[in-house]
Each structure stands twice: as structure tokens, then as C-alpha cells.
Amino acid sequence: MINVFQPSLGEAELAAVAEVFASNWLGSGPRTRAFEEQFADHLGVDADQLLFTNSCTAGLFLAAELLELGPGDEVVMPSVSFVAAANAVAATGARPVFCDVDPRSLNPTAEHIEQALTDRTRAVVVLHFGGDPGEVAAIARLCRARGVPLVEDAACAVASTVDGRRCGTFGDIAVWSFDAMKVMATGDGGMLHVRDPELARRARVLAYHGLARPSGYASARVSSRWWELDVTDFGRRVLGNDLTAAIGTVQLRRLPEFVERRSAVAAAYDTLLADAEGVRLPPRPAAGRTSSHYFYWVQLDPAVRDRVAATLLERDIYTTFRYPPLHRVPAYGTDHPELPGTDAAAESTLLLPLHQALTDEEVATVARELRAAVAHHAAPARV
């Protein structure tokens, strides 16, 4: 099976894990802190503003707590987004307000965001679809002008930039994902960036049960009763650990080669499918923007899209669509405006296999089989 997503792990990651085993410290510790510091260097931010979490989802829920969302509040986000973002908002009692996206890039424009803002808007959440930064810089300017916090869901954009600036540094809060399907994979894990230093300190407290002193051992030399609890917030345990951080440190070091290969795969698809009838290729990132190339998507006639996907699966090529529109999910209510760009994209878009382990032969196979499947299903039925 040619998978749509696949991590790249090897001897270096195994060696890093072995070092953690040898240290006999598996929890959040020195390797976690080192990973935070190295990721901070990658972003160009202060390491004290970063927190390694056990998932990107945990970061989104922490963001909702930091923003003190609650009933009566609205949070604007694109309908083409992962369910975790909407869940984090809805769990507080606040209301996700879904905006439209460009049907080709599947990213919202600043205009889409502005049209959804009301006097009840407490935050905006944006996803960088497939790693394309989209109009995040313009959206950040809009949010600052309106006094509305911006949360960047940078799960797809670990290496994406706008004019040399990393995605995840435009907003007030940002999250990244390192789950098993991402460009950088630690199995489970995520990173949280909080621009405000005080909120960043609160995030670290909330991430470990709301304890002001997360370690009794660390307090033993400054307190006569270091085992006593000092609860300042009602938090949970969502910290990352040294095992996953050790893997993340190696993956971060390999990130440039990962993105280089993914870029080459995307370019190969562009060439191999350039004249494919019935296949529309994704737009390239605008000038000044670079992509992590998390997704490569094509758009087909909605009448054949699902049948093409089924045919490719029969040929051992796994394709999919991410992310199904959230405004169609009953759990988030039914009172949503018409979102024509989102609906059009959802019915026509198909993600092709894209990961750094793909061989040139596999890329050629995917392109060849896609051409054949589209031609087969687009042909008029014989009578």
C-alpha cells in the first residue's frame, strides 16, 4: 500500500530513545527542555514561551483556557479545519463560528475572517491548510486592529514561512502537532507557543495539575515540607515527556531534509499531472510564502471523486480528504451561513500520498493510476 501519510524513523531516533532508557528518567525532564529550546531556535522565539505537550489537541484546549472562553463567546475559524479546534472551543461553552475558505487553497482569506466577526468574537483560530501559510499575516493585522486574539493551528505548517518568518509566530498563541502522521513525528506530542510571558507561565502551571511547584524534588532544598501542594489553577496533566522529546529532537534536526524531499515530491506531481485531463492541481504558495508540503491535493469533478478514490484504493494507493467541513457536524449546531467555497472544496478535493519516504517510482505510479482512474470514470457509460 502506498500510504498518504507515513513517518520517517531510523537508527538515530532509536539511539535517542536508548539514551533516555539509560538515564532512567522517562517523564518531563532535561530532554523535554532541550527540545523546547531547540524548537524555540527553529522559530526564533524565547524558549520560555514554549511548552512541549502530549498532543496538539492538548495545546488547543490549553489555549481555550488561557483565553478564558465561555458561554456567550464566539470564536471564528474556517470550516475546513480539524475537529480538535472546534472541540476545544465548544467544550468551554463558547460557540465556534465557521467562516468560508478559498475553494482552491482551502485557506480562509482575511475577508472571510472579517465577514464572520461580531461584537461577541473573543478569538480567531486559523489553520494553514496543507502547510500553505495562506493570508496569516493579513489575518494577524486584522485581529490586532480589532483587538481579537489570534490562535494559529500550525499543525500542518512546522516549516512554513511568510517572508522568512515562521508560521506560528504571527498569532498570540500557536500549536504544532508531532503525531504519527505529521512531517515531524514523535508518535504523540505537540508544541504550544504563547506570546505573552505571563500567559506562558500560566500555561505551564495548567499543564501540570495547576501546581505552582511541579516537582517536590526540585523544591526539597528550598522548602521544609516540599511534599505539600500549592494549587493555583485547576489544571490537568498534558506535559510531553523525555521519550517523545528525544525523538522530536532528532526529527527536528532532520526537518530540512524532510521538507526538501516533500517539496520534490510535490514538484514531481506538478510535472506528471500538468496535462492530466479532469485533474486540477493545487495552487502554489504566493510570493514570499513557503510551505511544509504536508498535503498535496487535486480537485476532480465531484461526480467522480469518490469513485476515483475507491479505484485507487483497489490499486493499493490510499488517498483521503482532510478536513471534512465542520459546519456540517451537528454537534456544533445547525445555524451556520452558506459557505460555498468550503462546500465546493469538500466535494472535489482528494489528497494524494505525500511523505518524505515516497520513492520516485511510487510517485510516478500514483500519477499514472490517478490519470487512468479519472479517465475511466469520466468516460461515458457504454449502452
Structural commentary:
Helix content is 39%, strand content 13%. It has 383 residues and is of the alpha/beta class. It has 2 domains: 11-252, Type I PLP-dependent aspartate aminotransferase-like (Major domain) (Aspartate Aminotransferase, domain 2, 3-Layer(aba) Sandwich), CATH 3.40.640; 256-378, Aspartate Aminotransferase, domain 1 (Alpha-Beta Complex). The strands form 3 sheets. A 7-stranded mixed β-sheet has the order 1-9-8-5-4-2-3, sandwiched between helices. Helix 1 runs antiparallel to helix 9. The mean pLDDT is 95. This is DegT/DnrJ/EryC1/StrS family aminotransferase. Keywords: Aminotransferase, Pyridoxal phosphate, Transferase. It comes from Streptomyces bohaiensis.
Computed CA radius of gyration, to the nearest angstrom: 22 Å
CATH class of the largest domain: Alpha Beta
The CATH topology label of the largest domain is Aspartate Aminotransferase, domain 2
Work out the helicity level: 25-40%
Number of strand segments: 12
Report how far apart the termini are: 35 Å
